[in-house]
Amino acid sequence: MSSDIILKTQQLSQEIASTYPLDAMKMDAYWAALNDLQVKFYLQITGLDFLGEPDGDESITITNRGHVICDIGQWRINAGNPHQDYIFPEDTLLRGGESVTVYTQPGARHSFNSNRSIWNNHGDTATLFNHSGEVISTWLYGKAAHMHVMISNVHYKGDEFRTEGDEYVELHNTSGDRVDITGWQLTAMSNTHSFTFPSGAIIEPSGTVRVYTNRPPSAANEYSVNSPTAIWNNRGGMCALSDYLGYEIAHFAY
């Protein structure tokens, strides 16, 4: 979705540049269209607490990562079931850098007003729609994400002498959705080494993450096992990926 929005923004900018001079009405229309594209690009689902920790109340968080004030009135969050929707009230404004959290239980300003859990602990899909019904952001976790995450590479032969701290395993998100991999685990089947992804770990749409043996992360999509010794046997082995409930998702033999 992001690449599509970028392309549309470029096309609109070129159209503005080629249409000269512009009258006030056309200029207003162009600016409104550009603003709409920015809103689609910067509004994202940035968190989903399906366990409801620590007080038992589940929640989902939407963040405006841009600088434009966004009116999300009549926008809708769907919790994976046709009858599980939350619709934001009219004139709900979200300023640049701000977040809004929608809870499951009654009592909060933004709430599904449900006395029962709505987010499946085994996995689900959260979708944010704008007032026109367009999908703005999608968040997958657990079983809903299994088919979209693969082990794309095991770089088992590092360049660092003996310790090979620059070894890594790479995961690839094949979907156009954000995938929550909190609590997922990578395991080297030939030894006792494993790595559990921390809270908040995600793979961006069509993105990758790398888990190094022992190298300080230099980007948001990098992690380190912090092992003083090499993990991946240069003569061959297998890597397994499981989710937070222990279900195996993928394995990679090399």
SSE map:
Elements lengths: L1 H17 L5 H19 E7 L9 E6 L5 E2 L4 E3 L6 E3 L5 E2 L4 E5 L19 E7 L5 E8 L6 E7 L12 E6 L4 E3 L4 E4 L5 E3 L5 E2 L4 E5 L9 E3 L13 E5 L5 E6 L1
Helix pairs in contact: 1-2
Protein name: Intermediate filament tail domain protein
Organism: Vibrio ruber (strain DSM 16370 / JCM 11486 / BCRC 17186 / CECT 7878 / LMG 23124 / VR1)
InterPro entries: Lamin_tail_dom, Lamin_tail_dom_sf
List keywords for this structure.
14% helix; 254 residues; alpha+beta; Lamin_tail_dom; six-stranded mixed beta sheet; 34% strand; 2 domains; 2 helices; four-stranded mixed beta sheet; globular; Lamin_tail_dom_sf; Intermediate filament tail domain protein; Immunoglobulin-like
Describe this structure in words.
- It is a single chain.
- The protein has 254 residues and is α+β, with helices and mostly antiparallel strands.
- It has 2 helices and 19 strands.
- The strands form 5 sheets. The protein has a 6-stranded mixed sheet with strand order 5-4-8-9-12-15, with no helix packed on it. The protein has a 4-stranded mixed sheet with strand order 10-11-16-17, with no helix packed on it. Strands 14-13-18-19 form a 4-stranded antiparallel sheet, with no helix packed on it.
- α1 (2-18) runs antiparallel to α2 (24-42).
Summary of the model, kept short:
The chain is about 15% helix and about 35% strand. It contains 2 helices and 19 strands. The chain folds into 2 domains: about 1-140, Lamin Tail domain (Immunoglobulin-like, Sandwich), CATH 2.60.40; about 145-254, Immunoglobulin-like (Sandwich), CATH 2.60.40.
